[in-house]
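User: Fold both of these, please.

Assistant: Here is the first one.
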Amino acid sequence: MSLGFDSLTIDCADPVRLATFWAAALGFEPSDLDPEGSWIDDPSGGVRGIFFQLVPEPKVVKDRIHLDLRPGVAMAAEVERLLGLGATVVGRVDEGGSFWTVMQDPEGNEFCVLRGPADGWTPAGEPA
């Protein structure tokens, strides 16, 4: 017996704001935007989607899990797009012959934007 990935739940202070950011960032579709909990759907059907649930406590430490996101073309262009949506840059990492940008969503949750094909990445290449 094994498990299959169904969906991701993110605790947050403003479910509508965060769902709107991540829907735009990932190309997902908002399906239920509610201040108590908001849902966005994966249009590819790869996973059900992401649920953003209201919690009373603020984020206080670095996330123990984060998303690594691969752009379709270039890392720099994707970083600029995400900045326009409300993300912030934490820094750039150059390590092990690769590089990526560490960012935060509007509530401070960390994620990484990896190299894209224009940056020399290929699907057969090494992991970033």
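And the second sequence with its predicted structure:
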Amino acid sequence: MPNSKYKKLLQVIVLLLAVAFAVYRFGFGGHRGGGGNGDGVGENDCNWTERVPVEELVFVSHARCRMACRDIDAQLVEQVYLHGEVNCKKSSIKDGKHRYALEKADNQGDRIRIIVEDDDGKHVIVTVIRLDRDDKCTCS
């Protein structure tokens, strides 16, 4: 009978480890990521592929200011928009709208991140970041 006790104990331990891994991997309640107002984008929401033609992108003044002081032109932003990968950890939901962090390396190897807000099908470029360099932008 002692073997039976150890076998049951081992089964319980394996089950607990599997549950702990699932919670770690998928997060409690299915949310990962963060930012914004604390409503992270769920992993299923992070598989964003519906992109509008670049001619329809809307740039807010903050994004234009960041682009100017970080030496990033609209063509590079468009390339990141079209071919960038979604960073779920940096994506969020703000005021009920999804904000996606798209990242891609430029020709010099710098990582560029853009934040795109989906405003009922209208895609708004909120900000633009060159991740591999510090800057002294004073945009508000």
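Residues 28-39 have pLDDT under 50 and may be disordered.
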